[in-house]
Structures are given as structure tokens and as C-alpha cells.
Amino acid sequence: MTAQIELKNVEKYYGAYHALKNIDLSIAKGQFVALVGPSGCGKSTLLRSLAGLETITSGAIHIAGERVNDLPPRKRDVAMVFQSYALYPHMNVMDNLTYSMRLKRKPRAEIEAAAKEVAETIGLSHLLDRFPRELSGGQRQRVAMGRAIIRNPKAFLFDEPLSNLDASLRVHMRKEVRALHNRLGATSVYVTHDQIEAMTMADHVVVMRDGIIEQQGAPLDLYAHPANQFVAGFIGSPAMNFVDARISESGEAARLNLPGEPLIPLNGSYPPGRSVIVGLRPEHLSVVGPDAGLALKVSMVESVGSASYISCSATPELSFVVEGTTRLRSGDSVHLAIDPDHVHVFDAKTRLAIGVVN
Amino acid sequence: MSRLLSSLRDGKGFDIVLVAVPLAFLLVFSGLPLIYNVVMSFQAVDMFSLGTFNRPWVGFKNYVDVFSLPATWPIMRNTVIFVVCSIAGQFVIGFALALFFARGFPGSSYIRGLFLASWVMPGLVVGAMWNWILAGDFGVLNYALRSLGIISENIFWASNPAWSLWAVIVANIWLGISFNMILLSVGLAAIPRDLYEAAALDGANGLQKFWTITLPMMRSTIGAVISLGLIFTLQQFDLFASITSGGPANSSNVAQYWAWEMSFRQYDFAKGATISVVMIAVVMIASVIYVRSTRHEVRG
């Protein structure tokens, strides 16, 4: 598998601000890669550097084997879908779609045929005469994608394209974008701050923070084996619980820093006496009978019908999920069991995941 | 009564007062003089009937008289040349500067602000300054052109009939550049950056971005700048008064200066009024064309 997009030691400074730190990333042809992270993490800068809208300070970017560091955007043959859509307001849908072809002075018949085909792909054939201001948010979104598709570029770059849509349309467009990607066999890089979007759409998720790549891999790998506390907390919803703890003498249990210092079993052996942070996903905690598990007090119950999210008063707060509705109310006592297979252990200082000592 | 007062404080009455005050002001200081002027252009006016409103009605006689004067057509021609060349110069140089400063290099907004100096200066001061620059025997323009070898002997810009109109046009262009530049800068700043980024990715080079994004997106601004330019240029009086006084031999005379000359130099108020009414008609036609052209305004 050859890499369609390859970044090596990419660095970007804005004055003294270090926006991208030694980024190495390889994207295979046909892959759908999501760049995800909190705002200001550098994901958009990275995408704009790929597009050529930002120049990198050092390092190398290769697109389809060609070094593009010094190429202007128009020579990189990548298409971008902007968060604001960036449709040309003075052109109708037809002209928006065909702008790139008209710049290249393609024959009229060819332009019209391409526009027709793309309009069908994105379901906008009946709106070709409309101006962007006459379209709904979802329709504008489609035009923006159509404008990218018609170019048949080496890569599609998406800069938070769904964040201006309402929730139900967003879920719908998520599937549509992914389906389109599959149909076109395209290479896509998708920037989002929404980890659910990243998890559901991408083959490969890149988690960024403060200009560095914290971890990259298949979505479920990141979920199951987060490399550090940041990724563990960022991937997964509701977010993972973190509790300070100390590994027991035997190395096979952790003593939580909670009232009564409860001991929880670990799957495997860890360095005895080490200060750690234990990560527990809300969906891996289960309610058990009164004489077992962690004794906690319920502080809040949020029910959405299919599941209930329950918070318990502890420092820090612990939350867990039960399927369907629950009879638990605020103030009730509850006992939670922990599945040792799903306990994540992080070093208290480095915040990195600690592997099992065999 | 209290109802009326409360309506005045906070309600429909307040809105009406807000509209009525400027309307009354416009009516008294613009509307009435305008009507008076139009009426006067259809009357026989002399020094003795100046104080009364009830003067002999002569129909279109003043118009016929004005257009049969030998000076009329050369002056109308001068006016057209003055307006077209002034607006073209102001617009092209102003637009170029606006694009230049829109690049946003260090200090660009500060330097752009300095350009307003020409706009805030009174026309007579600008005229005096250009008188010095254009002076035939000691002017810096002649010195520069001679040093560059473009001319071999001094040109008397303001007193040579071949150059006098151009002397005023150059001064007027200088005066109007900054205003054009500021308005066009505002228009440029209103174009979203991501349109240019999208165009760059779509394969547009600099010139293509200008033709396909900047110009169409600036349409309404350009229309406004040119119509305002037309109005300001037709109002330009100070520069003529201070540089050429319309001379020599009407070679740099234009309609607005001529109208003033008729009324207040030759005391032929009827003809002065007639010329200004013709100018009003021209401006009105231009405004209607402008309004119609921006009616189908495209906005994102």
C-alpha cells in the first residue's frame, strides 16, 4: 500500500507559537483519516498545511509521491470542503460546481456533462439555478462537496464540514459523506472536534493536542487501548472516569483514593506501590448487590430513554451508564462492580498507559 | 394628552419625530432652494426682480438661450472630460491602492490612514498646493519632467489652453484617490477570506481570483463609489476657482463653475439656474441607472 499523503517531521511556527510539533503521518490511498482534538490542537493548521493555505516551517509533505512543500494550493490537486462552505455567493449552484473547470477553460459540453453527473451524485439536479443564499444548510453542504467531487482530486480535505448543521442532519450527512468516500474510492482527511464523528466515519483516527499527535490508529483500538490519559478521556462518550490510586503490594490490584480506600482487582501484574491513575469507562461499571463493589451515593440521574447516565458523588465524580431507565434517584446508595478486563492504568506523573508486567 | 406624550417618548410618535426632524431640515435647506432654482430657470430674472418671487414666466427661453451660446458645447465637453477622467483616475488608482493595502503588510493600516490627509484638506488649500506644483516657471512638476528629459521647456499648465483642464483634473484625481481607496478598502475587507482560499484550491491564479471573485463581489461598492464620484466631481468648484478660474478663454471651464460665473459674475441668475437644473437632470439620470443596476444585487 503506497502512501497517498505523507508528512515527515512537519513543524509549523506562528512567530514564537509552536503550532505543529514534529508531525509524522502517512495516509494510504483510499483511506478515510480523521484528525480530532480539542480546539487549538493544530488539526486545522495541519489540514490547511496539506492544502497549501499555510506554509510549514520545516519538514516535508508529499502528495501522491510529489513533494508539495513549495507548491501553491492550485497546483496541489486537492479539494477542500470548508466549515463555512465558502460557496461563491454571486454564482448559482451550476457555476459554483463548475468553477474549477471553467478556470481551466474546459469545453462547454464537458463542463455540462460533469456538472450533471455530480449534481446527480449529490442529489441537487433540481437546484442548479439557485444561488447559495436560496439553499438550506444541508444543500449548501452538498454543493460544497459537489464542488470538490467534480475535480476528482488526489485527496479530499474536510474542515469540520458538518459543524454548522443541526444534530439530526449532521448524523445523516455523516453517513452520506462516508458513503460518498467509499463510492469514489477517494482519499479523505477529515478534521473534527467531535470524537463521535471521528470514530464513526474514519478508518484511521489521529488524536492531536497542543500541536502533537497523541495517538493514531483504528477507532476501536484507540477506544480499547488508549496510549495515555488524554486519549482515554477524549475518546468515548460519556467520558472515562479517572481515579487516583496506588498499586497494591501484590501488583494485581489497585487501592483507589476514595473514602474507605477500596481495592479493585487488576487483570495482570503492575509495579507494586506505584502511584497511578485508574481509568474506568462508565459503560464498564455495573450495579451489584449491597455487599460487593464500590459503595457510592447517586448525585444525579440523566435519562435519555435508551440509557441512563448516573453520576455519583465522589472526588472526582464517578459516572456510569445503565441500559434503559433506572429506578435509582439522587441520594440513593449504589454499589458498583468493575470488570478487571476494562481497567486502564496510567502513570500518575507521565500520564502514559502502563503495560502489564508479566 | 399623557397618551400623546408617552407615544412621543416610546412608540410610534417617537418614530415619527425621528423621521420628521431630518425631513424638515432637508425640505427647508435642500428641497425649497432646489424648487426655487428650478422655478427661476423658467423666469426672466434681472437685478431688479431678484428680490421678488413673482417674475415674468418665459417658459423654455432660458434653456434655448443657454444652448445657443457659443461657449455651451465646449464647456459641456470639458465637463464630460473632467468627470470621466477624474472618476477613472480616482477609481483606478484608488482601487490599486486599496488592493495594495489589503495585502496587510506591517504598518499597512497606519499608512492607509495617512492617505486620508488629502481628503480632509479643503479644496482651496489643495488648489493652492497644486498651483505651486504646476507653476510654469518654478513648479516642481516642470522641474521633474525636465530633469527626466520628458519635456525640453517649461509648460505653463494653468494658463496654456491645451493643458489647463488637465491641470485641474490631476489635482482632482489627487484629491479623490483617498476617498475612493477607503470606500473600496471597506468593500474588499467585506469579502470573506475563505472564498479566496476556495478559489485558490479550485485552481485560480491571482488575476483569475480578481476577475471572478473580487470584482463581482465588489459590484455594489464599485457602483456606490462611482456614483458618489460623479456627484463629488460635478460639485468640484474650489479647484477651478483656485487653479484656473475656468480660463483661459473657457478652456478649463465646466458646467458647475460656469453656473456660478453666470449667476454671480455676470448676474444672469436665470441662465445660472438653468445650467444647474440641466446638471441636476444629468445626475438624476445617472442615479436612476445606478439604482437599477444594483437592484438585482447578489449577496451571500
Characterization of the model:
Helix content of chain A is 23%, strand content 34%. Chain A has helices at residues 43-51, 93-103, 108-121, 137-149, 167-184, 195-201, 219-224, 229-234, and strands at residues 3-14, 17-28, 32-36, 58-63, 66-67, 78-81, 155-159, 188-192, 204-209, 212-217, 241-247, 253-256, 263-265, 275-280, 285-287, 294-303, 307-313, 318-323, 333-338, 343-347. Chain A is α+β, with helices and mostly antiparallel strands and 358 residues long. In chain A, strand 4 (58-63) and strand 5 form a beta hairpin. Chain A has a 6-stranded mixed beta sheet, sandwiched between helices. The radius of gyration of chain A is 24 Å and the shape is elongated. Chain A folds into 2 domains: 3-227, 3-Layer(aba) Sandwich (Rossmann fold), CATH 3.40.50.300; 238-347, Nucleic acid-binding proteins (OB fold (Dihydrolipoamide Acetyltransferase, E2P)), CATH 2.40.50. In chain A, helix 2 (93-103) crosses helix 3 (108-121). Chain B has 300 residues and is mainly alpha-helical. Chain B has one domain (64-293): MetI-like fold, CATH 1.10.3720. Chain B is 70% helix and 0% strand. Chain B has 15 helices and no strands. Chain B has helices at 2-9, 12-40, 61-68, 72-101, 108-114, 117-120, 123-134, 140-147, 164-189, 193-201, 206-217, 219-235, 238-243, 255-264, 269-293. The radius of gyration of chain B is 24 Å and the shape is globular. Chain B starts with a helix and ends in a 7-residue tail after the last helix.
